[in-house]
Design goal:
4 domains; DUF2126; globular; ten-stranded antiparallel β-sheet; Transglutaminase-like; 46 strands; alpha+beta; C8orf32 fold
């Protein structure tokens, strides 16, 4: 986003007497080739009684020549330059084929033109020796980068106030120099190498970055500007390329050239003479930000943020006063800041680097949120086409402040090899069984099934070694090689059957017996606790199996035992003397159990598989014994298996994988200040873990992480959930969102529409609103005591087009599902929220939701649903109409007494509908912005993982907004077609959308249709049929640099976006309008004998009246 700055350069010469001034020449105006957009320039010189003439020197630089009319005792020069600090990629240039490798030679004609810039002005043995010792790359660009960096490293920077420039010998002998000295030294070095180079004098502007760098210097702590000097070298194809040896970098938007000349003397800022006198010199350079567009790295000013926090506290007080008991959680997603290309950060769910970053973030979050918490490395969701379930790294801690685990050094990580083996596993299980009540007799070693692996080995081709594998082999092949290397005769781990006796507060166990005598695992690569041969155990009919009801989350729960109490109980059981419990000769139905604790070592790490438990007290008791065992043996452990039972007395968060991202399931917050602290801390910890919150498309468009930031609304306990206590609150929210499409589209990602991850209830199903109205009419008012009502009324209404209850804008899967306790958490999930790139933007989203809920709690919103029809994918995919809709939302909140401000949503408008460019044609202002485009899902095709459906992402949408237009005289056209302009209600202001095919994928909705880029937008004078001016938008790089890698940071992304828009390029000559669908003709009674052509589709569509669809004319 653009930052507009004002550079003020003040210089004053004070003389000790009245003197005459000779004609002076000032080189203080930005040069014609300056790439930084200059919006305004002013030069003021005192004494004011002078004549001034603007000239250009032989090198094209601007000169101001002044003749002074009277004596003076001072000369004052004030310069102000107003510039747009848009990002400029200094490497965005081409090289001629002849200049791609160094050394190269200029063509003869070009060499003659560059003669002044090739002339060596001094012979320097030190420079020649330095160049002789320098060994650069063959590629020209790499060579220049290395040469510039080498000079920056070898010559230190110093501020030198003496006039003039050091010779090369002086600079090398001193080892230091000012920017003038190193700039001139680099010029001489380039000429010595046969490259044309020139000396540049100008302004350097450096702005404080919004986000500090993780890898090196972050830049100045305050905005800075000063006179500066650097070098430019001429490369065929690229032209003049700036290199700054002071920083070792190429010249970018902060380098504003004033004069470029063959020698430094010709580039002096001021030249002239005075009578003999003593002179005192004063100067000052300042830079001031005069305008900043809202941007994702700094979305709000300090005053705005203070107002946001104040409203958050006020809403919090109201929610407490009204006894809403609202908690809010989320599922933010993050991406790597180092890797934008590999599958794990683009489309795949898993990858080694992703696991490494997830573990790093997990550790940071545990230290911040949950000291005393316990890690749990379990399995999460299993999606079709994936070989194994996805991992889920969790952390649990107690809400009462008591620790679950004390010694953090005894908790291991799945990315570290601790060098453990079978001996550590056997010792740990033995000591753990003793501490659990002398249960060692019940432990069984677990083995891989030899019959299976003999059979699997026999199937291998004869030329493959079964003991060897590589990472490209399938999971089954890798597992077989690992098993054979380990040895089938060696135990894989150890199993202790056990179950928690809630009545006696102790662990019960039994001995498992098998027909094959030993415990042979089910083949696979999961933890041994998931591969136990349960079907081979002592048979129990369903009627004989003991009932173990899970904890009812709607019960009133007491306090959990303290950590010391749990530890003391464990010590008491361990200290009991006597024989171990006897093993009965035959298993008894009453004492037999099918759950077990497992210990195994994988890749040098010791894992403990936690059996399924029904009460959290059992889990805490087990963990206390495990820690005591780990402490006694000095072994780091990792917990896996079943997670603790759902219980409001435990808090938790998860770090999980999703395609291309890491997802964090954040623990809910009950208060605004808690939410602010948690969100800001999470973003900062992710940043320190080298995870970011934004991605970029190939063309530089910013699109967040590509993952969601789903919001969960509920209560501290399911019984506290506002959605279950007041079902009319959910009915109000559904109706309000249906009435305001802006709430659905402003915060969502780019993938929207009926087949997206979070479709609106009225997208894709014509009868959905009719059925929803029937359901809403049955909602009771006020508080109710039947929590199941909401699920019964909406379970078959809030679904997507395939009937999926999870992929909806309002997901009630965890509200009060009949499936089990994990689905009866009282949670409503709002899924149409993409990951905001800044913590403050995320909090503003949350504040908007909290404010709407407070408004609905006091005054339920019960109105008929609106039949939007095609307006949803016509008007409301343009930023103007989304803004207008959000204005209505903000006005509604303000009327109800909540001072939410529309300006707080400005960063979201800029992020979701970025500006492509703008031009001024006379009194008419034209602005182009990106619009939203729902992606069409194509038909089913066979893929590697089964049946798949591709998405057609080739369509894009553009918003054209025009101000100062008189419709009777002028109109706006795109690629020769008139736009369907609609008035915004402001005199002379109109808006329209343009839908076009941006690129040509092999699988598309209309694969034979060509692309429509570039887009030429003209302001057309209807009276003379000519374009008065226009602009051009290129989907790709206009110079043919078709990028095949993603931008590495926001700066490169911005430079790509800027290069796609030209503020010129209107249609030349008389404007010939495109033919209308129905042309003139004549009647021939006997027929013409020609086959009637297929009539073209009309440009104006009744379904989408606000959009010009260029596909209708191919």
């Amino acid at each position: 986003m653009t930052i507009q700055v004002a550079i003020h350069h003040h210089t004053q010469y004070c003389y000790d007497r009245m003197v005459n001034l000779s004609p002076h020449v000032f080189r203080l105006r930005p040069a014609p080739h300056c790439r930084t957009p200059i919006r305004a320039y002013s030069l003021k010189i005192s004494p004011g009684n002078h004549f001034i003439n603007w000239q250009q020197d032989p090198f094209g630089n601007y000169l101001a020549r002044l003749v002074f009319q009277e004596k003076t005792d001072q000369l004052t020069v004030d310069v102000e330059v107003v510039a747009d600090m848009v990002t400029i990629n200094p490497f965005e240039f081409f090289l001629e084929d002849s200049a791609k490798a160094f050394p190269f030679a200029y063509e003869q004609a070009l060499r003659e033109d560059l003669t002044p810039y090739l002339k060596m002005t001094e012979e320097s043995p030190a420079l020649k020796k330095w160049l002789k010792d320098f060994k650069g790359s063959k590629g020209t660009v790499d060579f220049l980068v290395e040469l510039n960096a080498k000079l920056n490293k070898d010559i230190g920077y110093t501020i030198r106030m003496e006039p003039g420039v050091q010779t090369c010998e002086e600079t090398f002998s001193r080892g230091t120099g000012s920017c003038r000295d190193t700039g001139w030294l680099l010029v001489q070095a380039m000429r010595q190498l046969g490259l044309a180079a020139r000396f540049v004098s100008g302004y350097l502007v450096q702005l404080t970055p919004d986000v500090k760098s993780l890898d090196g210097p972050s830049g100045p702590t305050e905005d800075f500007t000063d006179l500066h000097a650097w070098c430019e070298v001429y490369i065929p194809g690229a032209g003049w390329v700036g290199l700054d040896p002071t920083s070792g970098l190429f010249a970018g938007e902060g380098h504003i050239p004033l004069a470029c000349t063959p020698i430094p003397a010709s580039a002096a800022a001021v030249t002239g003479a005075t009578d003999k006198c003593e002179t005192t010199f004063h100067y000052k350079n300042t830079v001031v930000r005069i305008h900043e567009d809202p941007r994702v790295t700094k979305p709000y000013s300090s005053s705005q943020w203070s107002d946001i926090l104040t409203l958050g506290e006020d809403v919090d007080k109201l929610l407490k006063k009204e006894d809403v008991r609202l908690t809010m959680g989320g599922e933010p997603t993050f991406v790597s800041v180092d890797d934008f290309e590999s599958p794990q950060w683009t489309e795949a769910a898993d990858g080694p680097h992703k696991r490494e970053r997830a573990v790093d973030l997990l550790g940071r979050m545990r230290n911040h949120f949950a000291p005393g918490g316990i890690y749990h490395f379990g399995q999460g969701k299993w999606y079709p086409g994936e070989p194994i379930p996805r991992w889920r790294y969790g952390c649990y801690w107690r809400t009462d402040g008591e620790p679950i685990w004390r010694d953090i050094n005894l908790l291991g990580f799945p990315t570290v090899d601790y060098g453990y083996g079978a001996d550590e596993a056997e010792a740990f299980m033995g000591e753990l069984a003793r501490r659990l009540g002398h249960l060692g007799k019940f432990v069984s070693p677990a083995y891989e099934d030899p019959f299976y692996y003999v059979w699997a080995e026999a199937k291998l081709p004869v030329n493959l070694d079964p003991f060897k594998f590589n990472l490209k082999d399938g999971i089954e092949r890798q597992k077989m090689a690992q098993v054979l290397q380990h040895g089938l005769q060696n135990p894989v781990g150890y199993v202790l059957p056990m179950a928690w006796n809630a009545y006696d507060q102790r662990w019960d166990s039994c001995k498992w017996s098998f027909r094959r005598e030993h415990l042979f695992l089910i083949p696979g690569n999961s933890a041994i606790g998931l591969r136990l041969p349960l079907e081979s155990l002592f048979y129990q009919s369903p009627a004989e199996r003991p009932l173990t009801p899970e904890q009812d989350l709607f019960d009133t729960l007491g306090r959990l035992p303290k950590y010391k109490q749990l530890a003391k109980q464990a010590e008491t059981k361990t200290a009991k003397k006597g024989k171990e419990p006897a093993i009965p000769p035959h298993p008894q139905v009453e004492t037999f159990m099918q759950t077990a604790l497992c210990v195994e070592v994988r890749e040098g790490r010791l894992y403990l598989f936690i059996p399924p438990l029904t009460h959290v007290e059992g889990f805490l008791a087990l963990v206390s014994v495990i820690e005591a065992t780990a402490q006694a043996l000095g072994i780091c452990i990792l917990l896996e298996g079943y997670s603790p039972p759902e219980d409001p007395r435990l808090k938790k968060f998860y770090v999980t994988p999703d395609p291309g991202v890491i997802e964090v399931n954040v623990h809910p917050s009950a208060h605004w200040h808690e939410m602010v602290e948690n969100t800001e801390a999470l973003y900062e910890m992710a940043h320190q873990a080298r995870l970011g919150t934004e991605k970029f498309m190939l063309n530089g468009r910013q699109n967040g992480t590509g993952g969601g930031n789903h919001v969960t609304l509920g209560g501290i306990t399911p019984a506290d959930s506002p959605m279950l206590r007041r079902p009319d609150l959910l009915a109000s929210l559904i109706t309000y969102w249906q009435h305001h499409p802006g709430l659905s589209y402003l915060f969502s990602g780019l993938f929207i529409g009926p087949t997206s991850q979070a479709p609106r209830v009225d997208e894709g199903r014509d009868d959905a609103l009719y059925e929803l109205e029937l359901a809403l009419s049955q909602f009771p008012s006020g508080q109710v005591v039947q929590p199941w009502i909401v699920d019964r009324l909406l379970r078959n209404i809030l679904v997507d087009v395939t009937g999926n209850t999870h992929r909806t804008e309002f997901c009630i899967d965890k509200l009060y599902s009949p499936d089990g306790p994990t689905g009866r958490l009282g949670l409503l999930e709002l899924r149409a929220f993409e990951m905001p790139p800044h913590a403050q933007m995320s909090l503003v989203q949350m504040l908007l939701l909290r404010t709407i809920i407070a408004r609905m709690w006091k005054a339920p919103y019960r109105h008929p649903l609106i039949r939007w029809g095609t307006d949803l994918h016509d008007r409301y995919l343009l930023g103007h109409y989304v803004r207008r809709d959000m204005e209505e939302v903000v006005d509604d909140l303000n009327r109800e007494g909540y001072p939410f401000q529309l300006a707080w949503l400005e960063p979201f408008f800029e992020f979701r509908f970025p500006k492509w460019g703008e031009i001024q044609v006379g009194d008419i202002h034209l602005e182009l912005r990106a619009g939203l485009e729902p992606w069409h899902v194509l038909g089913e095709e066979a893929g590697q993982s089964g049946t798949t459906r591709f998405v057609d992402s080739s369509l894009e949408r553009m918003q054209v907004k025009v101000n100062g237009l008189h419709r009777d005289q002028y109109t706006v056209m795109c690629n020769g077609f008139e736009l369907p302009l609609h008035s915004t209600g402001i005199n002379g202001e109109y808006v329209a959308g343009v839908r076009f095919k941006a690129w040509q994928p092999w699988a598309a909705l209309h694969p034979l249709m060509p692309t429509h880029a570039p887009l030429v937008v003209d302001v057309v004078d209807l009276r003379n049929g000519r374009s008065l001016g226009g602009c051009t938008y290129h989907v790709g790089h206009p110079g043919g640099r078709n990028y095949d890698t993603f931008p590495v940071n926001a700066y490169e992304a911005e430079s790509r976006r800027i290069s796609q828009f030209w503020n010129h390029g209107h249609t030349i000559g008389p404007f010939v309008p495109s033919p209308s669908p129905a042309g003139p003709g004549k009647f021939i009674p006997q027929g013409s004998g020609k086959v009637a052509p297929t009539p073209p589709l009309p440009l104006r569509s009744n379904e989408f009246p606000h959009t010009l669809d260029l596909r209708r004319w191919g």
